[in-house]
Amino acid sequence: MFFNLHTHRPTLAPGTVEIESVYFGQDKIPVSPRRSVGLHPWYLQEVNWNAGEQWLREQASLPEVLAIGEAGLDKVTATPWELQVRAFQMCSDMAEAFVKPLVIHCVRAFGEILTFKKQWKPAQPWIFHGFDKSAETAGTLLNAGCRLSFGATLFHDNSHAAEALRQTPSDRFLLETDVSDFSIRQVYERAAEVRNIPLADLEQLVEANFRALFG
Ligand SMILES: [Zn+2]
After folding, report:
1. Which residues, 6 or more positions from 163, have their beta carbon under 8 angstroms from its beta carbon?
2. In angstroms, rounded to a whole number, what is the distance separating the alpha carbons of residues 13 and 194?
3. What is the 70 CA–ligand 1 centroid distance (Å)?
4. How many Å lie between the centroid of ligand 1 and the Cα of residue 197?
5. For residue 7, how far is its CA from the centre of ligand 1 (angstroms)?
6. How far apart are the CA of 47 and the centre of ligand 1, in A?
7. What stretch of H or E contains 44?
8. I need a labelling partner for 162 at 20 to 30 A (CA). Which of 39, 152, 176, 189 fits?
9. Residues 40, 70: contact at Cβ < 8 Å?
10. How far is the CA of 96 from the centre of ligand 1 (A)?
């Protein structure tokens, strides 16, 4: 069984468990029986905040919604910073209220996100999805109690993500496909190669990590 923490392109393939990421205002109708829901930092310029909060609350209460997110902060997008922080805090509050993990989108804002974590002291796990930074940054996030999810960048030459994955404790990582063309099986195969363990062992680890978060 392959567990995909974060995808925008669910395959519904047998033998896979996929969390489809859905953001407020998205046109595409979700198809996966398991989802995460959030206010994405890229799509906040036109947001009706009351409608967004109501939607988030309704969605978050559904049993098929396993996590809140993706939500987070992005220094490269045009969305004003105050709007990003407002949406991120709303999502974190919702994760706490509904006792579901938070899936985080972070671009060049690791320090800021950790500062908010210290301020807000969330009880729910924070999972940085699509992690592709150095082993050092990974260490900082892991020390702060966060989890990391790895995907397509494991395939890059001299991949930072691969180095980070190698040094991540076996109970603190997940795998994903996000928007990539790789299948979740391919990501598993690559991750097993990176950690230098048999695929079957990796499958057991990821399943245990997934179940620890989502039951
Ligand atoms: Zn995504």
Report:
1. 134, 135
2. 25
3. 7
4. 27
5. 6
6. 19
7. none
8. 39
9. yes
10. 21
Cα of 158 vs centre of ligand 1, distance in Å, is 23
Q: What are phi and psi for residue 37, nearest 5 degrees?
A: -130, 140
What pLDDT, in 10s, does the model give residues 42-81?
999 999 999 999 999 999 999 999 999 999 999 999 999 9
What is the reported pTM? 0.97
CATH class of 2-214: alpha beta
DSSP string, 48-84: -HHHHHHHHHHHHTSTTEEEEEEEEEESSSSS-HHHH
Which residues, 6+ apart, have CB-to-CB distance to 12 below 8 Å? 18, 31, 32
Q: Give the distance (Å) from ligand 1 centre to CA of residue 132.
A: 13
pLDDT tens for the chain, 215 residues: list them.
999 999 999 999 999 999 999 999 999 999 999 999 999 999 999 999 999 999 999 999 999 999 999 999 999 999 999 999 999 999 999 999 999 999 999 999 999 999 999 999 999 999 999 999 999 999 999 999 999 999 999 999 999 999 999 999 999 999 999 999 999 999 999 999 999 999 999 999 999 999 999 99
* CA pair distance 161, 179, nearest whole angstrom: 17
- Residue 152 neighbours by CB distance under 10 Å: 20
